[in-house]
UniProtKB/TrEMBL annotation, chains A, B:
<protein>
    <submittedName>
        <fullName>Pyridoxamine 5'-phosphate oxidase-like protein</fullName>
    </submittedName>
</protein>
<dbReference type="Pfam" id="PF12900">
    <property type="entry name" value="Pyridox_ox_2"/>
</dbReference>
<dbReference type="InterPro" id="IPR024747">
    <property type="entry name" value="Pyridox_Oxase-rel"/>
</dbReference>
<dbReference type="InterPro" id="IPR012349">
    <property type="entry name" value="Split_barrel_FMN-bd"/>
</dbReference>
Length: 134, 134
């Protein structure tokens, strides 16, 4: 098990289409898998207006909400892979030019309208690799 | 995107060796991938004494700490898969007979001593499947 640098961790995260957002809402921890993209050091995710995640972010505006975002690529057979976690502040993207810039992105796997864009500014990024046992 | 029952969600979770624990510690959200097993409706994970996770659980004894545990199997190519989340109370396992029963389990992928066993009693279990787009 070896740690990776923050830069390497962000590159690994950027190379996969999905991760898991950890946050708190009304006293309970929650985790949601979401699609993401990375641009200019920010993690952008898309959700829909009535989701618990959107509510959690909206309730704590304008300061945003501190979240943990995890991505990994784990090989069950080889018992190896990598995992990275970025802790930072999540805020809705509301500026029309930013919304236009990201229109249709990140592409999501689900067929419901994902009309809320959230940007996470990572503050603490950590990660590790697990190499296959010899 | 289709919801699954709590029973189906627990069966899916039990069928994979790894998941992601979401918790709070000292005001910050955290996510850690861990190995797990499911027995008698409980999720058992193994960590080491000096980890942030163990500290988070130990500080809140004897009430335990409410955590979210997520497992999934996502196919990046097919853009499909499943994800389940169990929210419940995590507590260290300290009874000698229980520790003996779970000795060496769950098997972990990392090569450091994972000498702390934690049991999660799920209270709210949800999950969904994403079918490949046609």
């Amino acid at each position: 098990m070896a740690e990776v640098t923050a830069a390497e961790a962000m590159a690994l995260l950027a190379g996969v289409p999905v991760g898991r957002l950890g946050f708190h809402h009304r006293g309970l921890p929650a985790i949601r898998p979401v699609n993401h993209l990375v641009e200019d050091g920010q993690i952008l995710i898309r959700t829909h207006f009535d989701s618990r995640l959107s509510a959690a972010v909206a309730e704590l505006l304008p300061q945003g909400v501190v979240v943990a975002y995890e991505a990994d690529d784990l090989d069950f057979e080889a018992r190896a892979g990598w995992s990275v976690v970025a802790v930072g502040t999540a805020q809705p993207v509301t500026a029309p030019d930013r919304l236009a810039h990201f229109e249709g992105r990140p592409d999501t796997w689900v067929d419901q309208p994902m009309n809320k864009l959230i940007a996470i500014q990572p503050e603490i990024v950590t990660g590790f690799r697990i190499e296959p046992a010899r």
